[in-house]
From TrEMBL:
Keywords linked to the UniProt accession: Glycosyltransferase, Transferase
Family matches, as InterPro entries: Glyco_trans_2-like, Nucleotide-diphossugar_trans
Positions of the Glycosyltransferase 2-like domain: 7-182
Pathway as given in its UniProt record: Cell wall biogenesis; cell wall polysaccharide biosynthesis
Name listed for the protein in its UniProt record: Family 2 glycosyl transferase
């Protein structure tokens, strides 16, 4: 089977991350296995859209971009938020595989090569990678447990190493075969991030579960050799953000469980809460007894994270039962005029 063409989608929303955006694009251009193209999808920010269009216009006109793929700048064609931005990128992309990179992250040189290797198996529909934090303060806060690195968008302690089969990939460092979207539709709106205003998530979890329902033979992988480095701003190193984000995760998980059922929606979380987190608390308490810095704080943070996530899940479940599941899944349809696709919104799983 020939190696797939890979389009890379980077969703952006603020000029505050200008240097990070340029660094993210540069890391894609430096890949050992070149991308077919890089798509920058701007989330309802005309000033940023114009600035990026100007920045990459000259680059695309120069011959030196040959082999690294052109950089295309697009406006989010859907409602505000990360899910619709990703769907816009899918719609406009030309590759056999679409990879997603956060706008405040940089990919290591072999990132796309490791993704491509996963697709040598025709049953593989998605491949994710490992995301490492770059702390604004220069080091991990002593109280911050590695088991909760998902709070800052990174790979957390407890995920199995190597190339392994998983229920879902993590959206900031992931790729999907185009036929996955043909089978399951795109990312759902109503969950997922909206700039810095709402720290909800789980849109990739919901999509992956929907994909394996549509294609029961689908294989989803994480390859920890496909590494990106994700910047963690100073505001996210504080305990207040930790509590807010874990609570929001509970709300998001309730939406997903209501839509796809608690069996699949909480399948991975049960192992995480019954095995990974108790072990983390034990390590923290042991470190505290040995007078190692942060041990008691890490144990307390794990307990707090579980409690706040459970509270968010309980409230989210009540809201979901009262109002039904209101997020929308977006089927992706081919458009022969542009060579891309169009995203058409529908309501998925809403209850009477």
């Amino acid at each position: 089977m020939s190696a797939p063409d890979i389009s890379v989608v980077i969703c952006v929303y603020t000029e505050d991350r200008w240097e990070d955006i340029l660094a993210a694009v540069a890391s894609v251009r430096a890949q050992s296995r070149p991308a077919r193209e890089t798509l920058l999808v701007v989330d309802h920010n005309q000033t940023l859209l114009d600035r990026l269009a100007k920045e990459y216009k000259e680059y695309n006109e120069r011959e030196e971009h040959e082999g690294a793929g052109e950089v295309r700048v697009l406006a989010n064609a859907g409602p505000r938020g990360l899910s619709a931005g990703r769907n816009t990128g899918i719609a406009a992309s030309r590759g056999d595989v679409i990879a997603f990179l956060d706008d405040d992250a940089v990919a290591e040189r072999d990132w796309l090569r490791h993704f491509a290797e996963g697709y040598e198996d025709p049953l593989v529909m998605a491949v994710g990678g490992r995301t490492m934090p770059i702390w604004a303060s220069g080091r991990r806060p002593v109280w911050f447990p590695a088991e909760f690195d998902w709070v800052v968008g990174c790979t957390y302690k407890g995920l199995p190493p190597g190339r392994v089969r998983v229920r879902n990939v993590l959206g900031g460092n992931a790729s999907f075969r185009r036929t996955a979207f043909d089978a399951a539709g795109g990312f759902a709106t109503g969950i997922g991030r909206d700039g810095d205003r709402r720290p909800l998530g789980c849109e990739e979890t919901e999509l992956c579960i929907r994909l394996t329902r549509a294609r029961p033979d689908a294989v989803l992988l994480i390859d920890d050799r496909a590494v990106i480095h994700h910047r963690v701003p100073e505001t996210r190193e504080h305990f207040a953000y930790f509590r807010t984000r874990t609570y929001a995760e509970g709300l998001s998980k309730a939406l997903v469980a209501r839509s796809v059922g608690a069996g699949k929606g909480l399948e991975s979380e049960r192992r995480y809460t019954t095995r990974v987190l108790p072990a983390g608390v034990a390590r923290g308490l042991r470190d505290a007894l040995l007078a190692r810095p942060g041990g008691a704080g890490r144990a307390a943070a794990i307990v707090t994270g579980v409690v706040t996530a459970a509270g968010g899940y309980a409230l989210g479940s009540v809201r979901a039962r009262r109002g039904g599941t209101t997020f929308a899944a977006l089927p992706i349809e081919r458009n022969s005029r542009t060579g891309g696709t169009d995203a058409i919104e529908r309501t998925e799983g809403a209850e009477p």
